[in-house]
Amino acid sequence: MVQHSFAMQRRRFLQLGLGAALVMAVVGGAVVWLRPGLQAGRIAPAVRSALTRLSEAILDRSLPADASARASAVAAQIDRLDTFIAGLPAATRDELSQLLGLLVAPPGRRLLVGLSTDWPQATVEEVRDALQDMRLSSLSLRQQAYHALRDLTNGTYFSEPQAWAGIGYPGPVDL
């Protein structure tokens, strides 16, 4: 009789967990639908602070040490990201819009990124730690999101010749 009671409790716990996951999925989907990460193919204003913090954390050692030059480099990076994203195929922009929408929604920021602090108040260290947790996560969705964010950030930043000197790249060889 005791085992039967435990089985019923475990079954009820699993049902509650499944129900909570379903509710979170619906709420998360509704948030992204109501607040997409891209508007008319461009970065939504709410997403800019998230991408700023992500860029600061991902590019930390590659950015200028001077605070003013660093802020200017990050602002230029966000503009490059915006231009790059606008040139992506519509289907890719739609997927990216969903990811970015999740990043700025508090439940998505907490569950996908693992960051409890709002983007504007998050420190570089907090974001770097959250990114490291995403990279090492056992959930492939979190790892995929990490790689997408890192690749977008690095690809657009290092596409600029001004960034090459910082990594010792002399530029393309003339043929």
TrEMBL record:
InterPro entries: TAT_signal. It comes from the Bacteria. This is Twin-arginine translocation pathway signal protein. It comes from Caldimonas caldifontis.
